[in-house]
Amino acid sequence: MVLSDAKAGFDYTIDRIELDFKVTRRLQVLGLTHGTKISVLNRKSFGPVIIRVRGTRFAIGKRFCDGIFLED
Q1: Domain limits for position 9
Q2: Torsion of CA 58, 40, 35, 4, to 10 degrees
């Protein structure tokens, strides 16, 4: 499942990130790595997904959400 399919109010674990190297590296620096637990706070059909990672809130655009895979 990709992050754009996740439902608000649930917790997930990141499985892998398949994006451009620079984007992947930036997300890793921000704490989005394999095995990291995230909480989806808000999700709109045409907008960013707001997540909580290690106590910090992030808004991630749909294009990037489609490259972040979550464990089932």
Answers
A1: 3-70
A2: -90
Beta bridge partners of 40: 51
Read off the pTM. Answer: 0.88
Q: Which long-range contacts (CB under 8 A, 24 or more apart) does 51-56 make?
A: 51/3, 56/30, 56/31
- What's the structural domain count of the chain? 1
- Taken in order 20, 26, 29, 35, the sign of the CA dihedral is negative
Residue recorded with tokens 């620096």: 29
We report the CATH number of the domain holding residue 61 as 2.30.30.90
Model pLDDT for residues 6-59, shown as the tens digit of each residue: 999 999 999 999 999 999 999 999 999 999 999 999 988 778 999 999 999 999
The three-point CA angle 66-38-58 to 5° equals 70
